[in-house]
Amino acid sequence: MTTTPMRIVHCVRSPIGGIFRHIRDLATAQAEAGHDVGLICDSTTGSAFDNRGVEELEPKLALGLARFPMQRQLTFKDLTATLALYRHIRDLKPDILHGHGAKGGAYVRLIGSILKLRGQKVSRVYCPHGGSLHYDPNRFEGRIYHTIEGMLGRLTDGLVFVSDYEAAAYESKVGQPRALSRIVYNGLTPAEFAPVSVDESAGDFLYIGMLRDLKGPDLFIEALHNIRLKTGQAPRAHIVGEGPDEERYRNMVKRFDLERAVTFHGALPAREAFKLARNVVVPSRAEAMPYIILETVAAERPLIATRVGGIPEIFGRYSNRLIEPGHIGKLTVAMEAALDSPEQMAGEAKELRSCLAETFSTELMNDRITTLYQELKGIKPADQSVAAPANGLSGVARAQTALARSSNRS
User: Fold this and answer.
1) pLDDT band for position 78 (50/70/90)?
2) What CATH number does the domain containing 249 carry?
3) Is residue 286 domain-resident?
4) Strand partners, 161
5) Range of the domain at 136
6) How many helices (H) and strands (E) does the chain have?
7) Where is the Glycosyl transferase family domain (predicted)?
8) CB within 8 Å of 146: residues ≥ 6 apart
9) pTM (2 decimals)?
10) What is each CA distance from 171 to 55, 154, 158, 175, 200, in whole angstroms?
């Protein structure tokens, strides 16, 4: 597809996990399509595993990689960071400023607004990736963040939501979007749809993801403990990932006397980690559109997951297989059932994989986001074959019910 080249700058606070995977795939596709792309991210976060991913992307970035100190919480240091980012972005003369996550989105909308006042023709695009939308609107912190989101919404030209659920959460907690909006699912490459076989010495269960309570590794460990109490033997399990609560989870394993059954591996590529165990468990308490679910389903690995965020949209007609988030009893029962019925789990994995490829592809993800950029810049796309729906929000209504149920549980 022939496109008019654009200068695109992505900004994210922490270049880790699914949010960086999204940026990496998008930036790569945009660079290959002939656009000049740059990336700005925090200089103080990221493990060696995460930083390798950033370094691998850097040669594709015609507008370069820039790293500045960025705080997770709102602090006075944000003023210094904003000034440094402004000077850098001003000199890049971008056509598109695309912020990812709450902090990245705040920076690009504030800086983009200043640039527009100074005569630069830049469009400000924001993708929450969950972020501040995970906060409970009935709590003080949630009200603060959602009020800020509402104010920044007035400085936004384009909004990208990675799931119907995320779009519904924005409408419910922040308000009706003022900007041109699209729902664009995260995507995988064709190579990722090849099934992965486990090693002969594979364990029973794999947890892979960030080591923080939002993702539920504490529930995973407790479920292993419950099975051991019931059967007298703990399932063999692997924990793959990094995060701020790792030491606490290691202490949980010691306290439950699971050290011989549970192995911590640090961060690994998903398809390599899948070989470690027969079943993948994703016990998240909150999500937007998690890549690990997409990757597990595409690899045809048996999966136990919770009914949060955009996960039901991935499971589609099989969403009745999902379990209630934060419910240790139901997680334990689901893991026991997986141990008892490996053939059924394998069959369900095959069914799930068969309906994934057309909807969740990097090609479609890139095309729909680039089409949004072009519409903001008044550029007519050369090929409308996979353009987004007119308003991109056709799935919000059915997501509202799930959002309401989730809010009622909070």
Assistant:
1) confident
2) 3.40.50.2000
3) yes
4) 183
5) 7-187+361-409
6) 15, 12
7) 198-344
8) 132, 135, 137, 173, 174
9) 0.88
10) 36, 14, 15, 4, 48
